Amino acid sequence: DLGKALTPKEILPKHPEHELKGAKLVKQLCERLNVPNEFQALAEIVAKYHGDCHDAHKKSATALLELLNHCDAFRRPARWQAIILACKA
Fold first, then answer.
1. How far apart, in Å, are the Cα atoms of 53 and each of 8, 10, 27, 58?
2. For residue range 34-57, what is the model confidence (pLDDT) as tens digits?
3. In whole angstroms, how far apart are CA 19 and each of 7, 23, 52, 77?
4. Burial of 39 from C-beta contacts in 10 A (0-12 / 13-18 / 19+)
5. What does the longest C-alpha to C-alpha distance in the chain come to?
6. How far apart are CA 50 and CA 27, in angstroms?
């Protein structure tokens, strides 16, 4: 939720598009800390899609399939499990 820190005070408590803003911050932080590519990719995906994961029960089948495809869940099931674990945390 790093992107929430960029929310203007006037629109709090809402945080529109914080996922996309957070993904950019995560990328910058990972590059600064020389995080291995595999973990950087995981962190960026979690930052970008954690909201969709939390709202999965409200999504249509089409939207869920789109989420799974964005996260490359079918080709990388272990990474998908890591995404779910991070979202639970």
1. 25, 27, 20, 10
2. 999 999 999 999 999 999 999 999
3. 11, 6, 10, 22
4. exposed
5. 42
6. 15
Token duo for residue 81 = 């499990």
Q: DSSP string covering 34-77, please?
A: T--HHHHHHHHHHHHHHHHHHTGGGS-HHHHHHHHHHTTTTT-H
Tokens of 5: 């820190």
Rg (the chain; Cα; Å): 14
Whether the model clears a pTM of 0.70, i.e. scores above it, the answer is yes
Residue where the block lists tokens 């990719």: 41
